[in-house]
Amino acid sequence: MKRTISALMGKAAIAPLAIIGAAIAATPALAQSAPQGAIVIPDDVKIFGNDNPNVRKATAVVNGDVITGTDVDQRLALILAANQNEVSEEEMKRLRLQVLRNLIDETLEIQEAKANEVEVSQAEIDQSYNRVASQNFKQDLSAMDAYLKRVGSSPESLKRQIHGELAWQRLLQRNVAPFINVSEDEVKETIDRLKASKGTEEYRIGEIYLSAAPDARQQVYNNASQIVKQIREGGSFVAYARQYSEATTAAVGGDLGWIRLAQLPTELANVAREMQPGQLVGPVEVPGGFDILYLIDKRQVLTADPRDAILALKQISIGFKPGTTEAQAGERAESFAKAISAARGCGDVDEVAAGVGAQVVTNDQVKARDLPAQIQTAILQLSPGETLPPFGSLDEGVRILMLCGRDDAQADNGPNFDQLMAQMEDERINKRAQMYLRDLRRDAVIEYN
Fold first, then answer.
1. pLDDT exceeds 50 at position 26
2. Which residues pair with 66 in a beta bridge?
3. What PANTHER family does the record tag this protein with (predicted)?
4. Which of 76, 84, 184, 262 is the most core-located residue (most Cβ within 10 A)?
């Protein structure tokens, strides 16, 4: 899957080491034995003063540019609106700190673009904002503005995020992309490997990776467990991946794209092998930390997927009058099913349905994979004119699906040469982008208030 360049690339949650004066220092013996450039911290650390470097107000000055508490609040409101679920006080604190880190990275990206004379006009920002309003919110601009204010954010906050993304993307395209090289032999080798693996299973997996030092594993495990709980209660996996994951895939909502299990660490491959699409698992312990996995989908390499078949369906339905009992509904459903089973295919069902007071809806562009999982397998086994068993409830009535036709999917030939080269180039640009941002963080002058 082609990965896009994003301003959120590589937002790892890196906790700085706070050293107060000369209070924390290695002994001469330790300093001499340590390799050059190593950070040496003695076992008997003593911190002077009551200041806790991990407890800060959510404001900062980044190379002279101010990030206010309002900036954090408004960006946090966007995330909470996307999750649409309650967030605990502890979770809120962690989320605020992550939002602050993201805003710091965003500020660094905008500053670096400006220093390199990379310009993003207000007209371009407004155009992207308008596109978000129409595509993501299905609203006009005034309704979009009102929505943002209603959830506690603002148009300015979203436009600043758009500014950061456009500036960073443009900077990478000018300063990084021209120096990325993928040879034709590399692409051909990848295509050959893909063809050789035809018929094997591929998995499209979402990940949230949290690093953990040996002495902090329990705390990170608890944090990961809390994230899993929030997602299972309705939180957005993509939103949590963007805010918490320390993997480079955070920029694309944790999406690893289509991969084979052999590409995963053994610990994750063993777990993913047993997962079903839509399943969330974790936290899974891996070297260096913990992973949360979400199986988006799975398929066979270069093989047509039956679920991509386009179906022509007729839905025949009846409703129940208010006050209908379960027993009465059962009798009515039984007689309805018997009448429809007597229909001689899709050409006859409309007349039969009219005779029993049923409604018929026709749709000849239904993709099998878009149907509920419990229906997909059954309906793909039908022949034209056959029906699924009736389903429904007292409130919604009874429905029967009849298959009228099926256009099977063609075998997927995989990405062509140009597509694969673009994908490999993007992956290398993303890795360079992470290193670029890491250098900006290292050299930044940041004051916390």
1. no
2. 61
3. CHAPERONE SURA
4. 76
